Amino acid sequence: MSRARLLTFGAVVAATVILAVLGYVSLRQWQASAELLFREQSRDMVTMAAEKVEMALLKAEEECLSSLQASLMEPTLRPEALEEWRRKNSIFASLTLVDRQGRVLYPPGAGPPALASEIPEGLWERGGRRHLLVGDQVVLAAVIPAADGPVLAVLGRSVEAVKRDVLAKTLGGLEGPSVLAVLDAQGDLLYTSRPIEQATRVLTVAFGEALPTWRVALYQPPGVSSRGDVRRQAMLFTAAFALLLLVIALGLLATYRLLQRETEMARLKSDFVANVSHDLKTPLSLIRMFGETLELGRVPDEATRREYYSVITRESERLTRLIDNVLDFSRIEGGGQRYDIGAHPVEPLIHEVLDAFRYPLAQRAFKLDVTVAPDLPEALMDPEAIKQALANLVDNALKYSTERRRLEVSARQEGTSVVIEVADEGIGIPAAELERIFEKFYRIGRSETQRTRGSGVGLALVKHIVETHGGRVSVESWPGQGSRFSLALPIAPSPPGGEGGGEGST
Ligand code: ADP
After folding, report:
1. For 378, left (φ over 0), alpha (ψ -120 to 50), or beta?
2. Exposed site from 34, 84, 138, 431, fewest CB < 10 Å?
């Protein structure tokens, strides 16, 4: 391949590789940023949910504390009033009231809570509340002004009530396929906005100070996660990209093949020109040589003179055949060749062709066998064209025979065809070449044919002629032993009156 072509191919391959790398990198980046965006959106959503839960919890606690304060403001502390308060504020499972001196005011008979000593003086002074962690339980400690001075209320939450009154109310109305869940300190599921089943956890976010040990988690059911979407899209993109690369590769291959064929064709054409020129030169120089000898009167006897004349006739016939081949071939290439097809007998045509080869056959001592089946029907053909095809086959048989010189021409009926066969015992054709010898300009691998004259269009012409007649040409060959070419032509329909068949042209 030439340098320029190699460069072009290199450029296309390089462009494809660059495209592939760019595609891969942008796909990865797109995948990463889609993933990031998805995580950010999920985090925002979960953080918002956590804030909502916490706000709802704080609000509920606030309301409870207000009503507790109202009860404590009564002049005497009545345990019944507190029982009543507890019934109404089920979010707290336990309530202990302690005064500033550490005495337990409620429930009667209970010991002081462990954390009473941890309450800083400031809280007693100013009032207020804070969440404290006892074990893994959150306890609300609030200093509430009461009738007889500030009272410390220690409130333990009821997990069930929190689930029911806070989590279910704030997280229950979530839309879309995602599931929100709340996990406890051990990571066990406390609450889910809907059944989780096979959903996978995407991320978790911690609550604030009011729920220090719990976390909110986002779950995505299988198949609907947007991460899955990203992955599916990435796969689709990759597949499309792979297809694109495949198409480019196939295109490259096809272009390469085309270029190879074109190069081969250009080579064959230049060989053709050289071969034809050489083919024309040989008979011309023979004609000239014998013509000049005759003209100079140097031929002693009549018999030799007659031989010279016949050489001139034979060579000019050969020249005509050659020029006809080339002209017909170019006419076929230009699409201008027309045949005058009619019903004609085959036998006279065979004899006419063989007559034209009488001299070279005799000169090279060819053994000739002609077998024409009796009662052979007429064939549908343009006799001139079929003569030319046959002459090409006979010419080849002569050209490609060496020691064993035998030519067998036969004609017989086979079904609805008349089959004409031309067989020789020459050099034969390798099996791999049998298909290609009918291609235009094609000549078998130089070594065997270099010494023989030829243009490589003879068999292409034979094939074209026979196929335009609605027939077919085939070949059998045994390298070193000989070849057998067959032309099958459609037989002419026998007319009712016994006259010749239909006329037609292509
Ligand atoms: P050419 O002008 O070279 O004979 P053809 O188209 O007639 O061109 O034939 C193509 C090639 O097929 C020849 O070059 C030759 O190699 C091979 N070929 C054709 N006929 C025969 C034959 N009878 N025996 C051996 N080889 C043949």
Report:
1. beta
2. 431
Listed residue (499, 354, 475) closest to 419, CA to CA = 475
CA-closest candidate to residue 89, choices 157, 191, 169: 157
Residue 225: band (very low, low, confident or very high) from pLDDT cuts 50, 70, 90: low
Phi, psi of 359 (to 5 degrees): -65, -55
Q: How far is the CA of 396 from the centre of ligand 1 (A)?
A: 6
What are the b/e assignments for 248-265, b being 16+ CB within 10 Å? beeeeeeeeeeeeeeeee
Partner residues linked to 412 by β-bridges: 419
The letter for the amino acid at 110 is A
> What predicted TM-score, i.e. pTM, was given to this entire model?
0.55
Identify the residue whose tokens are 């279910």: 168
Task: Report the run of H or E that residue 327 belongs to, with start and end.
Answer: helix 302-333
Give the DSSP H or E segment for 293.
Answer: helix 226-295
The Cα-based distances of 330 to 156, 324, 334, 376, 456 in angstroms read: 107, 10, 6, 34, 13
Structure confidence by residue, pLDDT tens digits, 260-291: 889 888 888 888 888 888 888 888 999 999 99
Output the six-digit token pair for 165: 């009154």
Structure tokens at 468: 């335009």
Cα separation of 183 and 188, whole Å?
5
> Residue 457 C-alpha to ligand 1 middle, in angstroms?
9
Nearest CA to ligand 1 atom 19: 396
With a 6 A CB cut-off, is 321 part of the ligand 1 pocket? no
- What is the tens place of the pLDDT at every residue in 444-490? 875 455 567 777 888 999 999 999 999 999 999 999 999 999 999 99
Rg (the chain; Cα; Å)? 53
Other beta carbons less than 10 A from residue 277's beta carbon: 10
Q: Are 359 and 283 in contact (CB under 8 A)?
A: no
